Amino acid sequence: MSLVQVHQPLKYLATTLERDEAELDLGEAALAVAAGHYEQLDVGAYIARIDDLAAGARKRVRRYRRPDRMLKALNDYLFDDLGFRGDLENYYNPSNSFLNEVLDRRTGLPITLSILYIAIGRRIGLPVAGVGMPLHFIVKWVGAEQEIFVDPFYRGEFLTPQGCQERVEAIVGCPIVFERSYLEVTPNRVILYRLLNNLKQIYKRRDEPGRAGRVVDQMLVVAPDSLDDIRDRGLLYLRENALSKGIAWLQRYLERNPDAADAAYVRSQVNLAYTLRCRLN
Fold first, then answer.
1. Which end of the chain has fewer CB atoms surrounding its CB within 10 Å, N or C?
2. According to CATH, what is the number of the domain 3-183?
3. Is this structure's pTM higher than 0.90?
4. Which one-letter DSSP state was computed for residue 111?
5. Beta carbons of 71 and 52 less than 8 angstroms apart
6. How far apart are alpha carbons 108 and 152 in whole angstroms?
7. Are β-strands 128-133 and 147-151 bridged in parallel, bridged antiparallel, or unpaired?
8. Are residues 212 and 198 in contact, defined by beta-carbon separation less than 8 angstroms?
9. What is the rounded distance in angstroms from the CA atom of residue 166 to the CA atom of residue 251?
10. 181 closest CA partner among 227, 137, 133
């Protein structure tokens, strides 16, 4: 894979998503996201690094047959030998959301470490998939007769369903009604969208509308009909003083969703943008 393929990062991201769910390489898709934020990112080199990690993991895992032993061997390799870990000290650092940075720094968020775990696991034939619980992301072994939940953010800790609930409750800070559906497999495109949504919220919290806007552009590649993202793209353009673009996106939102709960607010932003544009002209 050459750099030419990422000179148009949105097109490259769209290309990665053209594959069927079973064939979609979540690692490559996450790197396609990173390519939209790192100029001249050599995606091919990072895919090769994932391949190398998988080759090392295969040597550890292939001697076992029991799922728990195979996962334990993978955990020992990734978290003990290579030192991958969750970033508890600087959780909201945007770097934690980019898989190239996770590979370089060996720290990341629950979702990015899970993406790497899945990418390696799939390469060596392990039936692992993502589980997008509320406020936390983990991985599970999807077997015909057995499920094993693994938390890559906490060094591959094995969790029971009760342990999954307790992990979420620890984050929330109180007991919750925990639905069994929270432990179902999350489709790859939904994982990618969740990764991007996390990043969008981080950049909005840091008051970086330009970077947040680039993320929303990617979210609209993953989910072109997302009305919330169409609205957010317009609002972020306004934050950048790109008034005409902001007006166009917000009008698109109102045309598609005229009875939205926030329609009055969005119209007020459009009117304000028109006023500001007239003053500037």
1. C
2. 3.10.620
3. yes
4. H
5. no
6. 10
7. unpaired
8. no
9. 44
10. 133
Residue with tokens 């993202």: 229
DSSP 167: H
Q: Which residues make Cβ contacts (< 8 Å) with residue 251, sequence separation at least 6?
A: 234, 270
**Residue 33, number of CB atoms within 10 A of its CB:** 26
- For the chain, the domains span 3-183, 228-281
**3 is written with which tokens?**
């750099």
DSSP summary character for residue 157: E
Q: Is 187 helix (H, G, I), strand (E, B) or coil?
A: coil
At 158, which helix (H) or strand (E)? Answer: strand 157-159
**Helix, coil or strand: residue 121:** helix
> What is the CA angle 211-92-133, rounded to 5?
105
DSSP 56-103: HHHHHHTT--SHHHHHHHHHIIIIIIS--EE-SSSTT-GGGG-HHHHH
Residues 225-280 have pLDDT tens digits of 999 999 999 999 999 999 999 999 999 999 999 999 999 999 999 999 999 999 98
